[in-house]
């Protein structure tokens, strides 16, 4: 397809601990191909919203912000603002790309009233034509990222090897208190776990751009998995989310009663 015939915009929902910086080469490649693309900074990994002091030397042991750490629900607000402009204001078609935990954000943002086929029924143009999941978290409706990945039988909590949970000084306590999932986790060994497919210098460069994220407790209340076309890219050498886990999440979705296999995108 030639660049002049491309007729959709890509909106990328990045993963936990990330900023848009590692996505810049991909964004540039899309733009060079004539595809408009956006990758906003999501609040759930924005250090400016986490009360860490100087973001160039963040202090993760501080208390959470007064209203708590930002959650995927806050991310969705940012993405929907972009979608409203692209779809409602300018009638553009949009392909959502959800990377890693950003898949949850993409899924939750793809509400029926913004889906292309629903807008077409009402005589409106544009809309979300599909979701492209890149090693994405396919969280079931009614679950959060945190509840999905943690044991439900009361057994020991699962802490990914790339997470470093911190402690903070609570207002009504003397000294510091460890409190596990109530805190924030920064990324560690990022070059190894997030950028292992890159050369060492590039991986180390992007490791320095990683931030922190809290446990994600926003519950998914939207189900576009069977409503719009979806595609899934399995990253076979992924160390943060092994391919076997990606495959199990994908199989769980396509085996749902009445579910359709994740299908190629159709722009017609």
Describe the fold and architecture.
- By secondary structure, this protein is an alpha/beta fold.
- It is built from 8 helices and 8 strands; from the N terminus they run E-H-E-H-E-H-H-E-H-E-E-H-H-E-E-H.
- It has helices at 24-32, 72-89, 102-109, 116-121, 145-149, 190-193, 200-207, 243-254, and strands spanning 8-13, 37-38, 93-99, 127-134, 163-165, 185-187, 212-213, 230-233.
- Strands 2-1-3-4-8 form a 5-stranded parallel sheet. Strands 5-6-7 form a 3-stranded antiparallel sheet, with no helix packed on it.
- Helix 2 (72-89) crosses helix 3.
- The two termini are 13 Å apart.
Topology of this structure?
Blueprint: E1 8-13, H1 24-32, E2 37-38, H2 72-89, E3 93-99, H3 102-109, H4 116-121, E4 127-134, H5 145-149, E5 163-165, E6 185-187, H6 190-193, H7 200-207, E7 212-213, E8 230-233, H8 243-254
Parallel strand pairs: 1-2, 1-3, 3-4, 4-8
Antiparallel strand pairs: 5-6, 6-7
């Amino acid at each position: 397809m030639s660049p002049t015939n491309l007729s959709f915009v890509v909106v990328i929902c990045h993963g936990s601990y990330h900023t848009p910086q590692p996505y810049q080469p991909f964004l540039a490649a899309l733009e060079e191909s004539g595809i408009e693309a956006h990758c906003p900074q999501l609040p759930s990994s924005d250090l400016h919203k986490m009360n860490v002091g100087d973001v160039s030397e963040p202090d993760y042991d501080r208390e959470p912000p007064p209203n708590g750490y930002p959650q995927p629900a806050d991310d969705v607000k940012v993405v929907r603002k972009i979608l409203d402009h692209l779809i409602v204001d300018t009638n553009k078609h949009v392909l959502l790309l959800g990377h890693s935990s950003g898949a949850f954000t993409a899924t939750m943002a793809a509400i029926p009233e913004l889906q292309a086929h629903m807008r077409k029924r009402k005589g409106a143009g544009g809309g979300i034509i599909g979701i492209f999941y890149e090693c994405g978290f396919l969280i079931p409706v009614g679950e959060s990222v945190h509840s999905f990945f943690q044991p439900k039988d009361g057994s020991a909590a699962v802490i990914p090897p790339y997470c470093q949970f911190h402690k903070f000084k609570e207002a009504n306590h003397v000294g510091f208190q460890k409190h596990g999932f109530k805190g924030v986790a920064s990324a560690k060994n990022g070059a190894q776990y997030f950028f292992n497919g890159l050369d060492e210098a590039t991986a180390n460069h992007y490791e320095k751009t990683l931030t922190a994220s809290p446990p994600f407790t926003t519950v998914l209340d939207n189900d576009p998995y069977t409503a719009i076309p979806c595609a899934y890219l399995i990253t076979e050498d992924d160390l943060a989310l092994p391919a076997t886990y990606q495959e199990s999440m994908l199989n769980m979705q396509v085996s749902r009663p009445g579910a359709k296999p994740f299908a190629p995108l159709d722009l017609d």
